[in-house]
Amino acid sequence: MVEKFNRHHFLNYRTAVKELLQEIEFVNEEKSIRITREIEEEIVNYRDFSYFYFSENQLLGVLFAKPKKDLNEIGKTMEIKYLSVRKKYQNKGIATELMGFLMANVKFSFANIFLRLYEKNEFAIKFYKKFRFVPFRINKQIQTLVLDSGTNYEHTDVYYIRRMPLQNVTIRPLRTSNIDFLKEMVFQSLHKGNELFDRAILEKKDLAKYYKNWDSKREIGFIARYEDRDIGAVWCRFFPYYDQGFGYVDESIPEMRIAVYEEYQNRGLGQILMEHLFSRLKHQGVKGVSISVHENNSAKKAYQSLGFITISRDEHLHTMIKKLE
To answer: Which CA distances in Å does 277 have to 24, 104, 270, 282?
Structure first.
């Protein structure tokens, strides 16, 4: 049975907590004592987001989590510090149940859940991936941390993040006055694996056509806004035969472009934006919309789930179309 963490339980089961912490890789008795002391000193931060799993008055599992204040630039973030189950009782759903309680507790109040995992702990990595945790990236680079440097315990941890659905996101039309943000979204939409493009590429004619001379009186687009910041956009343009875009089909089918800042991806924002666009296009009698997608872009599966199908390929780019009839 899962019970919310409290000081009484912590003090009564202090020895059991230290034993459970030692089930974690690279945590020996000395380190478990240090961690236990740290939890006690910060009990106010841990108490609302940590859980014990009991069976017949025996402590079988623990999950300790607390708010992470130094990541608020990507939204309010919760950090899982320690999750452990006694070895004898592993693979019996205890860790999953503990995670379920935490997820239910924070889903409406936090934008992210954050943690560190040993890079070679395949069991833990697989477990957290079930909860949609992905490596945390800054400028497309996976963030890591070397621990216990210079000792026999030296190892590298990888940061993982689970992005929660955002609350109170507003969607508004993309205006002519938003041209600078539209240009930024073109840049964010570029796909080149983990590499970064030089922003000068935006001045090339093949990309400039996606943002220059945007006219909201004639064209359709939407912006997603969260906590006083524009964080994503979707828009489309009709291109003539003599000036085709990467996803050109014909002059009656507009080409869609979409981008969301990386820290706000995997939260369903893209689908919300596209549904707004599809609805407006249908209302105007447009029969379909196209998009150009790199074959290695993970978003390709999301487009397929929304009814896009591939109709042509050019090297690594796929042209996809969705019928709106």
So the answer is: 48, 31, 11, 9
Whose tokens are 């309010």? That residue is 76
Give the torsion through C-alpha atoms of 51, 57, 61, 65, to 10 deg.
Answer: 20
Contact 116, 160 (CB under 8 A): yes
Report the pLDDT averaged over residues 284-293: 95
Tokens standing for 74? 């990507």
The structure tokens listed for 249 are 């089909």
Q: Give the DSSP letter string of 176-233.
A: GGGHHHHHHHHHHH--BTB----GGGGGSHHHHTTTTT--TTT-EEEEEEETTEEEEE
Q: Do residues 10 and 157 both lie within one domain?
A: yes
pLDDT band at 194 (very low <50, low <70, confident <90, very high): low
| Residue 118 shares a structural domain with residue 243 | no
Domain harbouring 179, CATH code: 3.40.630.30
∠ CA 246-252-254, nearest 5°, is 45
pTM, full prediction: 0.71
Cβ atoms of 258 and 246 closer than 8 Å: no
pLDDT of residue 41: 93
Tokens of 178: 């938003």
- Which residue, of 163, 179, 198, is where some domain finishes? 163
